[in-house]
Amino acid sequence: MTARKIHPRKVIISCAITGAIHTPSMSPHLPVTPEEIGQSALQAAEAGAAIVHLHARDPETGKPDQRPEAFLPFLKTISQASDVVINLTSGGNPAMLVEERIRPAAQLRPEVASLNMGSINFGLFPMLKRFRDFKHDWEKPYLENSDDLIFRNTFRDIAYALEQCGEAGTRFEFECYDIGHLYNLAHFIDRGLVKPPFFVQSVFGILGGIGQHPEDIQHMHRTATRLLGDDLRWSVLGAGRMQMQIAAMSAAMGGHVRVGLEDSLWIGPGELARSNAEQVTRVRQIIEGLGLSVATPDEARDILELKGADQVSF
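The structure assignment produced for this chain is given below.
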């Protein structure tokens, strides 16, 4: 009797390279310049990331920069050297209006773009307990003023982003910071503005969103599964020190994972990660330790039904 061949389930690793939450003074390893962002993304891809999620920064100050032309230098670097899936932010930073935030994705037409699925309080100010010395004038006020910050993503904003980016065949990484965001996604599905499959990135640990208790992770997963069924492609990111524990839970529960210096600067207690690739390597070890396999970029394209790297505008 011939044994039936078992095909291992593939886990997509996304890596968020720099983001707009952490400021340059927090870590010397945070990529800031186009050269640093491009090389860090390529290293993450080499380590096993199938998707790289990208923000741009001013190369002198490290301040988030959402001009499409700020993205082009590292997009060319990455796309010429790797087949990794490129995911552009439409979140920018929480203080930007939606028209500014979606401009790179709308103009450059990537395979994937992030899309936040609801308005929330977005508190970064607790980081001031750990970080007190800053190299740039914008950093401390940016964190301090987040105690009065609403990250605006109204129904009108979301519909605008879907219409502006979806026409190019761009798929979305639906970032859901709380249970209500999953219901917002279901609302847009009912309106016919998004098509399956649905790549849901559940975000845990931002002050203003859902917490990081194992029951929070299970609750998000149960709700997403109930609302979206077989069309769900569920992934998680854990902000800060819980990054790897939450990733391990997701992989064990049948989901995908996101790591990267956007989400956490750390690799262990009190130890800064030296690169995005270091975090990718660590989460890959966890996934493979569970007896699972890591998806290649082309396997991620199949799982998410992406349009292909030959249909982008960069």
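Interim note for the steering committee: Residues 214-228 form the longest helix (15 residues). The radius of gyration is 18 Å.
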